[in-house]
Structures are given as structure tokens and as C-alpha cells.
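tl;dr need the bound structure. longer version: we got a ligand (PPS) that a collaborator sent over and nobodys looked at where it sits. i said id run it. heres the input, straight from their email, havent touched it
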Amino acid sequence: MTAFDEPRFVDGVLHSSVTSDELLKAIRKLDIRDDDVIVVSYPKAGTTWTQEIVSILFYGCDIEKADEKYIRHRFLFLDMKKLDSSLGPHEIAASLPSPRLIKTHLQSNEMPEQLTTTKAKIVFIARNPKDNAVSLFHFSNAIAPRDRQQSWSDFFTDFCEEKVIMGGWFKINTYWWSRRQDKNVLFLKYEDMQKDLTGGIMKISEFFGWPIPDGKLDEIVEHCTFSNMKSNPKTNYSDSPSLDVNSTPFMRKGKVGDWKNYFTVAQNEAFDKLYEEKMKDTGLLFDYEL
Ligand code: PPS
């Protein structure tokens, strides 16, 4: 069985079969510590990119130190039990020394309740929903068993209806956008990082209060480019047992605008209408091409 056999809906969110209702309840009750460092995102929004930057800064801009561990092991992934572990992520989290690095895609109704009141710093990385959908489409098929592979057209429908794994793009992005002015929340956009990676890294540095020593910034920028992260075994998920990175690379294209190769004209019009309906009151806008 893979983690993505027989997914099912729990409180409106599609979850892998290894994520039991009990586990989700236990995650809700997890104690968050003030010095936790938390990266939150919708899947495929640029999480790994953000994690790489956050962890390098966390380790005092020591790139070698940060990259001692695979990115998969550097942050605790809160959302599901590892297939090879008897412990749930909440149990592992409770046993970790502070400060902890945590990654989650959980929706606001299922993340630890204390994330609503904590002083812990939270970085939310958002990506325009069209590219986010295309990236998730490839990833979902890469991890799904053969009989659950979807066509783009079917995936697009499910994405619009918020019926894909880990739930709705609209829901999680609306929630964290509404918290963007909280002192402990940094809301970043993938497209802004593409336009100005140096600026993105500096924002993260300032947010956490982790200075970048003179001369180090350019080195970090270079290390975190798409091509360097793609060839870096510590960040490209080539160590992941559930992903065949030769057929579908985790670092796939790393572009803004790839959605144009997938969305039909009709799908694009329908999506723009849906976005307007769901997001018109939020003011959250994205770049769809650079
Ligand atoms: S996951 O599984 O949710 O953690 O995936 P996530 O890391 O959020 O998203 C993977 C996509 O991010 C792209 N990526 C990057 N783009 C630009 N620059 C850098 N450095 C970078 N690192 C990762 C990655 O290629 C996936 O996007 P697509 O569009 O599929 O290529």
C-alpha cells in the first residue's frame, strides 16, 4: 500500500489512507512552542524552496550544515504518519528538542489549534493557483497507484471543487492571507521569489531576525536557484521512497506560466470566473506570467 491508496474525505479534506481520524485529532491538540519555526503552504507552492532558505538562515547561513540532512528529514512533516514509523508526527514532534522546524499543508480546520494563538513564527508560501494546480497534478499522479492516475481534465475539475489531496487551494490561501498582518506571520508569493530571490531571502532573514553575514547573501541565492536545487540530492527528493524522480522529477520545471501548456481556453475562463467569485473580497492577486 502507498500513502495514497484509497484516500478519503475527513471534514471536507481529502486525506491519504494512512492518515486516520484519530491521528488528525491528535495533531489538532499538538502543543506548539513559541520558538517553533513553521513553514505552511498548499502542496506544490514552493514549500521546499522556502524550507531550504529558512533552514540555511536557521543554521546561521551555514549551507553545509543545513544540507547535512535531506530536506525531508530537516523539518518535521506534521500531516501524515511515515509508513516506516510506529509513531505519529505529533508524537515525534513532542519528543523533539527546541527549536523545532515544522512543515505542514494542513488546512486551518485541521492544523494544531494553537497555531491560531501562538507566538511561533510562521512562513506561508503561496503560488498562483494555475501553476500550483499543474504542479500538483503531476505530483498527485506520481504518487498515486496506477488505477488512480487522473487526466488533466479530471484533475482540473477536482481542483476547482477543492477535492484534491490536502483540500482546497482557495480555503488555505484565504485563511493565511487573512492573517498576513499578524506579527508572527510572513506571507510570501512564489512569483515574487522568482522575480527577486535576493529580496525574498532578505525578507525571511528580517522576519526571523536571523542576520546574513556580509558576503553570504549571493552564495545563498546561488545555492537556492532552481537548477542548483534540482541537482542537489539534499533538496531534490531523489531519496524519497514514494517518488520515482526519474519519471516525474520533484523539481519539475520551476516556472511561472507553465499552466498555459495545460489549461484550455475554456478552463482558463472558467477558472478566472471561479477565482473572482471566491476571492473577490480578499484582494489577493497573483502574477500568472513574468
Ligand atoms: S511539496 O511536495 O508540497 O513540498 O512541493 P513544493 O516544494 O511546495 O513544490 C514543488 C514545486 O516547487 C518548485 N521549486 C522551485 N521553483 C523555483 N525555484 C526553486 N528553487 C524551486 N524549488 C522547488 C518545483 O519545481 C515544483 O514546481 P513545478 O512547477 O512542479 O516544477
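gonna send this back to them w/ a short note. The radius of gyration is 18 Å.
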